[in-house]
Design goal:
The chain is α/β, with parallel strands linked by helices. The protein has a single domain, classed as Rossmann fold. It is 29% helix and 15% strand. It is built from eight helices and seven strands; from the N terminus they run E-H-E-E-H-E-H-H-E-E-E-H-H-H-H. It has a seven-stranded mixed sheet, with helices on both faces. Helix 1 links the parallel strand 1 and strand 2. The two termini are 30 Å apart. The structure holds S-adenosylmethionine. The site of S-adenosylmethionine has 20 residues, from helix 1, strand 2 and helix 6.
Length: 226
């Protein structure tokens, strides 16, 4: 791991560790809710818009996690995605080691993943773009721990038809921005991630999801951290 020079202190904002941060969809939601955010990714992320450290996320959580008020982790989902399963993937499964590292911090935490990981997630809450008025469904599942829990919001019916995966989005349809998808400018607008390129968008959580999670934290555990 490269040297980590310390958690930035920005007034009295609660501190959020954004582990496996990629280009920062998750991190931006916490930032918008009022957190001071540090992202960690094993790959350099020049588009990450907040404080960033390059390194192994599990090692970072274990070494520095106790210095944060709340930890979010998005271990890579390729191991569990349908297309990777078909292709026969070689990605390591990081869900169990990430959970162990999160629990070792003693801090409240959230770990996010995709539908294919459901058998490995414990009592996850489903978030869908329709819950936030986004023109994409992008289901993601959120396990919580360290004393933090989330309510399951009502799941609105999927009334708009979906474009085919990765294909241009016909009028009145919702996009599925996966793989080498068409329409980066549209996807940026739909998910409110104007700083991202295609690589980041295909991986990201829309910031609206984590802004909601952050608000749940701030109204339950958060006052103790301020
Ligand atoms: C699903 S993406 C995260 C998306 C992000 N939460 C967002 O909303 O934009 C997973 C990220 O994990 C990173 N990654 C994979 N293995 C890692 C490791 N051992 N330590 C840190 N980052 C890792 C990948 O480089 C990738 O950027």
């Amino acid at each position: 791991m490269t040297q980590f020079t310390g958690i930035r202190r920005d007034g009295h904002r609660p501190r959020l560790l954004d582990a496996f941060c990629c280009q920062g969809g998750a991190g931006m939601g916490y930032y918008r809710a009022g957190f001071e955010v540090t992202g960690v990714d094993v790959t350099a992320q020049p588009r990450y818009p907040l404080g960033f450290h390059q390194g192994d996320a599990i090692e970072f959580i274990r070494t520095f996690g106790t210095g944060f008020d709340f930890v979010h982790a998005s271990p890579p989902c390729q191991f569990d995605s349908d297309c990777q399963r078909i292709q026969g993937n070689t990605h390591p499964d990081l869900i169990a080691p990430t959970r162990a590292a999160l629990n070792a911090t003693g801090r409240p935490w959230v770990m996010e993943n995709v539908r294919g990981a459901l058998p490995k997630l414990r009592n996850p809450v489903l978030l869908c773009g329709a819950m936030f008025g986004l023109a994409t469904y992008r289901h993601r599942y959120f396990e919580t721990g360290g004393g933090f829990t989330l309510p399951q919001p009502p799941h609105p019916a999927h009334t708009a038809p979906q474009a085919k995966m990765g294909r241009p989005v016909p009028p009145g349809h919702y996009g599925q921005y996966v793989g080498n998808f068409s329409g980066v400018p549209q996807a940026r607008s739909v998910m409110d991630v104007p700083w991202m390129n295609r690589d980041g968008i295909r991986e990201c959580i829309p910031p609206a999801y984590t802004q909601w999670i952050a608000t749940q934290y701030l109204t339950t555990c958060g006052r103790a951290a301020a």
